[in-house]
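Continuing from the previous page...

OK, I double-checked the sequence for ATPase against my notes and this is the correct one:
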Amino acid sequence: MTDDAMQFSHDQADAYDRISALLKSVGVDIEDGLLTPPKAGGENIMAVIGKAGSGKTMLLSTLYRALQDAGVETVSGDYEGRRTKDRRTLAILAPTNKAASVLRARGVPATTIHRIIYTPVYDPEYEKIAEWLAGNGERPVIEGLTDLALDRALAFYNVHKSVPGALAAAGLRGSDFITGWKRRDEPLDIGFVDESSMLDERQLDDLKEIFPTLLLFGDPAQLAPVGQSGEMVFDRLPDDQRLELSRIHRQAADNPILDLAHALSDPALEFEDFERMVEEAAKRDDRIVWANRVEVDLMARSPVLVWRNATRIRLINAFRQVHDAPEDALLPGEPLICDGLELPLKHRKKRLDLEARGLIKGAQVVYLGPGRKPGFSRLHVMGAEDPSLSAASIVKIEKPDEEEPFIPFAARMGATFLHGAAVTIHKAQGSQWENVQVFAPDLFAAARMGRNEAGQPLWKRLAYVAITRASNRLYWVVRNRLAKPTGPLRVDDLRQVEPAPLTLEAQDAQEGVQ
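Thanks. Re-ran it with the corrected sequence; updated structure tokens here:
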């Protein structure tokens, strides 16, 4: 057992042992570091569930390291090594780029579910570089790529284990080497899925086709996916396939944000009592802020979390007004939320490329400026390893009391966006920000309505999800007011890479498609 495992609480240790036994039964012995070839057939699924601070991520990362030490190959979205008959594989997945980036920041090479279901077809030169970085090939000789650039790439990869990051260190972009996409036709071995409370049944079925062994990590106190009647995919598993973590660990014990989140489990707690707890916590700890107004500066990078759609629209329009944003254009630095892709079937490759780059429904994006053709935008996808891209865009800005949104500009087809200065708590699931503003009047409205979801008052579920999106500071906003910005919108704080010669724009120009 690893050093981390030796520090486990009793519930974590029990979960680790049961997962270890499951893995051993499929030929992966993490205790003795022994691997046997995979066996055909069979379906193994287990869920690790627990509230925020219960140690799910610590358990996941410890299991990842144990599998790595045993010789299991980790498959990520950026490159997959050559297949051999006896190799054993692991993929660590999350529903969104933002959720995957939270794990990557902790040293776990996570990717999105989409990047595993659909695999890229790479240029042979990329494969040479990737195999060399992984220690499976000779140092490549690539025209236009100097030895110094290769040394920089290797130095980066040895620390971060990211092929796209290594290429960026050498002045290249991994996406430029992708020649196409295909749905995965061969299964992998073991899949870890974080934020599995966001999965629906269709996504779970897709994952079962790829992974004979699946381990789901999820929080039962979050909001269930829309259309699943308050149920999460792990709720239907038998008791012996559900491992529950209940202890809150030392690193979370002095966190006032998590204290507030866990206080919501008290069935006798009413909304007014909870607000008094928030106010008292704010007097003791500056990580909780009792706010009489929305801080507009924070809205550009972390949206205000609301329940009601009307509140979201009002806050977005107030944000644009205080920045003097014109009605017929976006300002560089305005936040957007991807609302899906509007592309016909004949452009399936383009759809897969956009989705693989992070433009999936719910993705958070920052507008960098117009593209080289009308209707195109330069965008920064938050949480993506290769964040800068150019894409045909359809931007919709909703107006208060108006049924139809205002569209400042639009291509005939492409990625559709809503404004992202405020989002609903449902859409915020799976994301995390350093600073989070929760619009408390909306939660009060939910409490007044008396609605329940899965046996719990809806306002408590909403509050729990909203609060646990904050990693550093929670702003509990109690008034419908907006502060003035301290400066104009900016983009210089974002890691930017100039689009390569063959961007999606260039592809469209070649194909005659706008």
